[in-house]
Specification:
Number of strands of chain B: 12
CATH superfamily of chain B: Aminohydrolase, N-terminal nucleophile (Ntn) domain
Helix content of chain B: 25-40%
Function (chain A): Non-catalytic component of the proteasome.
Helix content of chain A: 25-40%
CATH class of chain A: Alpha Beta
Protein name (chain A): Proteasome subunit beta
Oligomer: heterodimer
Number of domains of chain A: 1
Number of domains of chain B: 1
Structural class of chain B: alpha+beta
Strand content of chain A: 25-35%
Radius of gyration of chain B: 22 Å
Number of strands of chain A: 13
Keywords (chain A): Cytoplasm, Hydrolase, Nucleus, Proteasome
Largest sheet of chain B: 5 strands, antiparallel
Strand content of chain B: 25-35%
Structural class of chain A: alpha+beta
Distance between the termini of chain B: 72 Å
Largest interface: A-B, 28 and 32 residues
Organism (chain A): Coemansia brasiliensis
Number of helices of chain A: 5
Order of helices and strands of chain B: EEEEEEHHEEEEHHEE
CATH architecture of chain B: 4-Layer Sandwich
Radius of gyration of chain A: 24 Å
CATH class of chain B: Alpha Beta
CATH architecture of chain A: 4-Layer Sandwich
Distance between the termini of chain A: 76 Å
Order of helices and strands of chain A: EEEEEEEHHEEEEHHHEE
Family (chain A): Belongs to the peptidase T1B family.
Chain lengths: 247, 236
């Protein structure tokens, strides 16, 4: 058929050759980030440390963040990665605690349940290709037994006596493997604090996103305790003699 | 409105390649190895327990072989997160079967269920290579091997995971007697022989594969049920 085409001034035309916008995509980069969380088991329960910095790229943007959350009576959550995704997770856990409280059955949320909940949210969001950009450490005392678990944006989960996220996995884990692994139930609170501070000091020296203002947190039979921010004693006198690593 | 091709127009711009590029990859390989050896009236399943992420060892003890019933064991490899979820789904289905029919689900039924479950995720596969092993209704040992999409085959021996390329030829030789002119092809392994082969396969793999090691979980399934044993591998 010979096309006879004419246009009225008001005819709506479909755009020709619309450029492909591709498939739907979601924000896939973290904005305000927290660096390593270091955690391990000791005689009285579990202990964790994380600094107070919320980085905006390489800018030390927010210097008074709290990267811990107490969940119920016996559980502690430590977060690294995107801080807004951590806030989202905190809201989800608060909702969970509220609905559990509303059950009014005298039951309280145990550490393993919190861990499973966090893990399932992480795995579910990975399956939606819309991950929460975090690595979480869940610690606590569940039925009298210390529990320490990890969950990240790929839904990968594991339990171990010593766990560290981010740079901590490279710098703190070797220290913890030597000083904690296999003897967690011999470690006193004083020794645990020393080990934790040593790990955090190494991270402070070598991780450019670390910050010398940090919190320590522990879960014991007495419950959850998150410390006020404190600074580590450092010694930079040998710094000018360090050779290599681009320095 | 326009009809037909206007010759003075340029052909439509080819769509730009946007898919696959610059896209977040949800799959991770957490390493580890699993194997199964089927005998006449038993089947052996072995998995190491190391979980890795690149050059980091996440944990030295993360099981990837599970009892689904008193006659079936499931061993997973590659992606720990997908493996755990797949196990949970099968575990739930096995429980539902038990409560519905008042008897444990059979190995053959679980084998087909696993295939269907994998294929149901054809467009976003579970990144796992499962081995399902157990005793059949007639009491014979059987191992089923799968790919991530649900292709299923019953085998006498199989190895999957980060050290599969090391273990599979060893099993082909020691269990399948492949390319051995004077071997009796109908010879059946005893339990002790299967156990020794499995242990040797893993001690050897631990030496050469950085993703295999720490602990070894061995399940022997026979008419009396599932017997689990944990052995130490090198922690380096």
């Amino acid at each position: 058929m010979d096309p006879i085409t004419f246009e009225l001034p008001h005819t709506l035309k479909a755009p020709k050759a619309a450029p492909s916008l591709g498939p739907t995509s979601r924000t896939m980069q973290p904005m305000i980030t927290g660096t390593s969380v270091v955690a391990f088991k000791y005689k009285d329960g579990i202990m964790m440390a994380a600094d107070c910095l919320g980085s905006y790229g390489s800018l030390a943007r927010f210097r008074n963040e709290n990267r811990f959350m107490q969940v119920g009576a016996t559980t502690l959550l430590g977060a690294s990665g995107d801080m807004s995704d951590f806030q989202f997770m905190k809201h989800k856990l608060e909702d969970l605690l509220t609905s559990e409280y509303d059950m009014d059955d005298g039951q309280s949320l145990g550490t393993k349940s919190v861990y499973k909940y966090v893990s399932n949210i992480m795995y579910g969001r990975r399956n939606k290709f819309d991950p929460l950009w975090n690595a979480y450490v869940v610690g606590g005392i569940d039925n009298g037994e210390a529990f320490l678990g990890y969950a990240n944006l790929f839904g990968t989960t594991y339990q171990s006596d010593c766990i560290a996220t981010g740079f901590g996995a490279h710098l703190a884990i070797p220290i913890l493997r030597r000083r904690v692994e296999g003897r967690a139930d011999e470690i006193s609170e004083e020794e645990a604090v020393r080990i934790l501070d040593d790990c955090m000091r190494v991270l402070l020296y070598r991780d450019c996103r670390a910050f010398n203002k940090q919190r320590r947190a522990k879960v014991t039979a007495q419950g959850v305790e998150i410390s006020e921010p404190y600074a580590l004693e450092t010694d930079w006198s040998i710094a000018d003699r360090v050779v290599g690593y681009g320095a | 409105m326009e009809f037909g091709l206007q010759l003075n127009e340029r052909p439509m711009e080819a769509p730009r390649e946007a898919h696959g590029h610059n896209h977040w990859n949800p799959y991770v390989d957490t390493g580890g190895t699993s194997l199964a050896i089927a005998g006449e009236d038993f089947v052996l399943v072995a998995s190491d327990t190391r979980q890795s992420d690149g050059y980091n060892i996440n944990t030295r003890y993360d099981s990837k072989a599970f009892e689904l019933s008193n006659k079936t064991v499931l061993a997973l490899s590659i992606c720990s997160a997908d493996g755990k979820r797949l196990y949970e789904i099968l575990e739930q289905r096995a429980q539902l079967y038990f409560h519905k029919h008042d008897k444990p689900i059979g190995t053959e039924a679980l084998a087909q269920l696993l295939s269907n479950t994998l294929y149901s995720r054809r467009m976003f596969p579970y990144y796992v290579f499962p081995i399902l092993a157990g005793v059949k209704a007639d009491g014979k040992g059987v191992a089923y091997s799968y790919d991530a999409l649900g292709n299923m085959k019953d085998v006498t021996h199989i190895a999957y995971g980060s050290a599969a390329a090391l273990v599979q030829p060893f099993l082909d030789s020691q269990v399948g007697f492949a390319n051995q002119r004077n071997a009796d092809p109908n010879r059946q392994l005893t339990r002790d022989q299967a156990m020794r082969i499995a242990i040797d396969a893993f001690t050897g793999s631990t030496e050469r594969d950085i993703y295999t090691g720490d602990w070894l979980e061995i399940f022997v399934v026979d008419a009396t049920g599932v017997h689990k044993e944990v052995r130490e591998l090198k922690h380096d």
